[in-house]
């Protein structure tokens, strides 16, 4: 892997989350401009801009990439955008703002971390409304779904006590929860393809490994060679 160049976003400041659309275009949230820019990797140019009205900090696409959702921290709704038409479709109301979001394994639900309470909201995508809210061990960071969809994982953090956790929720009954404590603030997680483990990135740069069935830390972690690793990716050949 090598750096091949940079894309100049011009007056679009503060790019944050990104994804690749079904057509290969790169979508990037830009907090300061309250929009998403769509980049063409062939020309390195901005092909489209979608105004969200709010800083679309986090994003989560459907499995087929046809729809993408954006959460905007303190703003009490989720933005829904059609990927093919690049049109803003709907605002899904929330009681308060949101942290990171994730679409469920079957594309029927949207998992949304509460902005400032240890809660996870569940949105019915078709109805575009919150249908369930469940408690977490601490303040939510990012939700994730295992390869088979059986578990919802949420990285959580208690800032007052400086304790981090990974909450493992049964997708068929989210109130059934087990918790694994980790040695710092957890950021991103990566459920592994073996279906048995997840890697969790901590703010310190440590990457720890969790056995899902046993709900415990196991050997196999490593260090990211830097602090604040915010994302883990599985790179295919």
Structure overview:
The chain has 237 residues and is mainly beta. The protein has a domain at 148-231. 0% of the residues lie in helices and 55% in strands. The protein contains no helices and 20 strands. The protein has strands at residues 15-20, 26-30, 35-40, 45-51, 58-61, 67-71, 77-82, 87-93, 98-103, 109-114, 119-124, 129-135, 139-145, 151-158, 163-170, 173-182, 186-191, 197-202, 206-211, 216-223. A four-stranded antiparallel sheet has the order 1-2-3-4, with no helix packed on it. Strands 5-6-7-8 form a four-stranded antiparallel sheet, with no helix packed on it. A hairpin with a 4-residue loop joins β3 (35-40) and β4. It is globular. The relative contact order is 0.09. The mean pLDDT is 94.
Binned, the helix content reads under 10%
Uncertain segments = none
Major sheet: arrangement of strands? 1-2-3-4
* Largest sheet entry: 4 strands, antiparallel
Beta-strand share of residues: over 45%
Radius of gyration: 18 Å
The number of E-state strands comes to 20
Order of helices and strands: EEEEEEEEEEEEEEEEEEEE
The average pLDDT is 94
Can you tell me the overall shape?
globular
Q: Structural class, please?
A: mainly beta
Beginning-to-end CA distance, first to last residue? 12 Å
Number of helices: 0
């Amino acid at each position: 892997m090598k750096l091949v160049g940079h894309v100049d976003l011009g007056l679009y400041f503060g790019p944050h989350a990104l994804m690749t659309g079904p057509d290969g275009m790169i979508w990037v949230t830009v907090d300061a401009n309250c929009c998403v820019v769509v980049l063409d990797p062939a020309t390195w140019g901005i092909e489209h801009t979608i105004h969200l009205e709010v800083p679309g900090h986090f994003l989560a696409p459907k499995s087929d990439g046809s729809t993408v959702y954006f959460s905007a921290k303190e703003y009490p709704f989720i933005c829904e955008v059609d990927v093919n038409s690049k049109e803003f479709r709907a605002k899904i109301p929330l009681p308060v703002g949101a942290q990171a979001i994730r679409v469920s394994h079957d594309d029927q639900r949207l998992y949304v971390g509460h902005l400032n309470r240890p809660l996870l909201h569940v949105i019915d995508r078709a109805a575009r409304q919150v249908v369930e809210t469940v408690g977490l061990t601490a303040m939510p960071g990012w939700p994730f779904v295992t390869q088979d969809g059986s578990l919802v994982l949420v990285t959580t953090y208690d800032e007052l006590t400086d304790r981090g956790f990974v909450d493992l929720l049964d997708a068929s009954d989210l109130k059934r929860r087990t918790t694994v404590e980790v040695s710092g603030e957890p950021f991103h997680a990566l459920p592994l393809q073996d279906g048995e483990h997840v890697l969790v990135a901590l703010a310190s740069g440590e990457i720890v490994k969790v056995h899902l069935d046993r709900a415990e830390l196991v050997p196999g972690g490593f260090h990211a060679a830097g602090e604040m690793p915010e994302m883990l990716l599985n790179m295919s050949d």
